[in-house]
């Protein structure tokens, strides 16, 4: 049986390769970076190794817990601190995000934490949802269309859009309703949108909706690499693959030599079969000497609504969010801001100060790091070559890993 050749050693490619190698089939992973893992990257800030990309996974579904248990990482799973996330509105005010919500869609539109964000007028409009005939919005393709029709523009733009953009880097009008998990299924049985949200929240397992690993999520990459090699798989880094035909790739190695490899090709990187559409994410991580942040004034961090004077799209207060990191960082505070365009440290520091509501000055900066990512948007899968990764499965580790696992099953003898 031909060996499997995986183009791209992000978490999708590595998960598939791990599964295929463990089942006894030969596998080669080719990654253009020096260190595989893709968006599960790492960097060092103030002497601490941090995630430079994804830092949490959604706890829904079995795929990630099963993989972590097999890799012996289940005892390192950590929950975030029980602080709320906040929203920084276009009006320049910060509010905790409503507790009972799915991607910002409120389960109780007239709750005071909803009205505080969207205003009472928009909250009352959203509260009409159960009175609106079920047909309205029933055929909506996107989250934006669904929310606009059932709850109105106020809730959509002031609450749902910042949350969706924080997760998917796209406006809800560009995000399919499937991103709402079980919500559309409940609605297809005649449940109104808010009630469907409440059902999904009630059915969620106890504990946080996200988790991570003590030491950072990037350590999953190390475990996968070790698992693949132990099972006899091969990993080549610093090597760019190009598709020649359905069974052949051309590899350009770091020293400039070009070789060819035949096998059962799997595409696990964007832009291989056709040009990729990507959206950028630029992060600035700052280590601060700022005792005023020790009490987590904005919980685990904030999402920023469009139209705000702050350029950052989101801020994560890393040392407030992850107790393991708080312990490791001692009195140093770590915050991470994300932007659509590259941002200077001075901009990020000013934004952090505004968002956290605490004066922060340059002398308080202990260290900082910037990193830029491009995130693949969904594309049509290749008609005959298995395609995995976020361009095929949608963004987020829960979706990416589950899809890679399903695809691996089709390749296992
Ligand atoms: C800043 C940031 C924060 C995030 N936060 C979260 C989060 O908290 N929770 C969550 O679930 N998700 C999060 N995500 C999304 C998540 O990280 C991604 O959905 C997931 O890691 C994508 O994995 P992938 O394997 O599909 O792609 P990638 O990680 O992009 O991997 C693709 C790999 O292919 C390689 N490659 C590209 N072209 C070639 C080529 N021609 N030849 C060989 N190799 C090639 C690249 O080097 C890369 O290693 C975040 C992403 C970013 C950027």
UniProtKB/TrEMBL annotation:
Q: Where does the Amine oxidase domain lie? A: 11-270
Which domain of life does the protein's organism represent?
Answer: Bacteria
Query: Which InterPro entries has this protein been placed in?
Result: Amino_oxidase, FAD/NAD-bd_sf, Zeta_carotene_desat/Oxidored
User: TM spans, by residue?
Assistant: none
Q: What molecular functions are annotated in GO for this chain?
A: oxidoreductase activity
Q: Which SUPFAM superfamilies match?
A: FAD-linked reductases, C-terminal domain, FAD/NAD(P)-binding domain
Its signal peptide is none
> Which is one Pfam family of this protein?
Amino_oxidase
* Protein name in the entry: Oxygen-dependent protoporphyrinogen oxidase
This chain's source organism reads Microcella putealis
Q: What is the lineage of its organism?
A: Bacteria, Bacillati, Actinomycetota, Actinomycetes, Micrococcales
